[in-house]
Design a protein that fits this description.
Helix 2 links the parallel strand 2 and strand 3. The chain is globular. The chain is an alpha/beta fold.
Length: 244
């Protein structure tokens, strides 16, 4: 008997702190993981090497999710090898400023990556996924999209838009065995949080008294991408130490 091909998972922003944790955990569940980076292909390849060393299956890819034509070309190349049944929209940037002093470029680039990137990546994967009658789409948002955060009007706008998009897409795709959910992390250890939040501020902000870990976020994403999560659909789930 021939072995059925592994389900493939595309993780955008897969070379970052949270993204790489997601890639490692999905690979541990037996998925072939496509580790995406924006420009730094070397970082994505290092994640692939870690996965391979642990006995998993992965490949690296680089493109700018905000660029529609480039993304479509990259997705078409992936689809030439068959459907991608798991999509984790994790790519995102922040460029913080009070709205009164925010530039047009700051507003648009943050929304381009998180929101337009979600469309550019997810839309061309839907019909091939639907033909398999099984799929998992998870977008990584932020507690800022739930509670708001000073200096992050652009980031909160981009991420909260994913909530409405995901709830609507869940209704469109549920009959095809496809779930669409959002994970909204709070303060998570890593380059992004470490630059912004000193330890004492984290203790004051977070009822749990600490930052979360990338693996704690990845564990939820891993569950939502599993067969066991088939009836969890159209949800926004926080991983934030009781921040809200």
């Amino acid at each position: 008997m021939s072995t059925p091909p592994l389900r493939r998972a595309l993780v955008t922003g897969g070379s970052g702190d949270i993204g790489s944790a997601i890639c490692r955990q999905l690979a541990a569940d037996g998925l072939h993981v496509v580790v995406h980076a924006n420009g730094n292909l070397a970082r994505a390849r290092s994640v692939v090497a870690e996965i391979a060393a642990a006995g998993g299956s992965a490949e690296a890819i680089a493109f700018d999710v905000a660029a529609g034509d480039a993304t479509r070309a990259a997705i078409d190349r992936l689809l030439a090898g068959g459907p991608v049944q798991v999509v984790v929209n994790n790519a995102g940037i922040h460029d913080d400023a009070p709205l009164a002093g925010m530039t047009d470029a700051q507003w648009k680039r943050v929304i381009d990556v998180s929101l337009h990137g979600f469309f550019h990546v997810t839309q061309p994967l839907l019909l091939p996924m639907a033909r398999t009658r099984w799929g998992r789409i998870v977008s990584v948002s932020s507690v800022a999209a739930v509670l708001g955060n000073r200096g992050q009007v652009n980031y909160a706008a981009a991420k909260s838009a994913l909530h409405g998009a995901s709830k609507s897409l869940a209704r469109e795709m549920a009959s095809r065995g496809i779930t669409v959910n959002v994970v909204a992390p709070g303060v998570i250890q890593g380059r992004m949080a470490d630059e912004v939040f000193p330890v004492e501020q984290i203790k004051a902000m977070v009822p749990a008294g600490r930052a979360g870990t990338p693996d704690e976020v990845a564990a939820l994403v891993r569950f939502l991408c599993s067969d066991a999560a088939a009836y969890v659909n159209g949800q926004v789930i926080g991983v934030n130490g009781a921040m809200g």
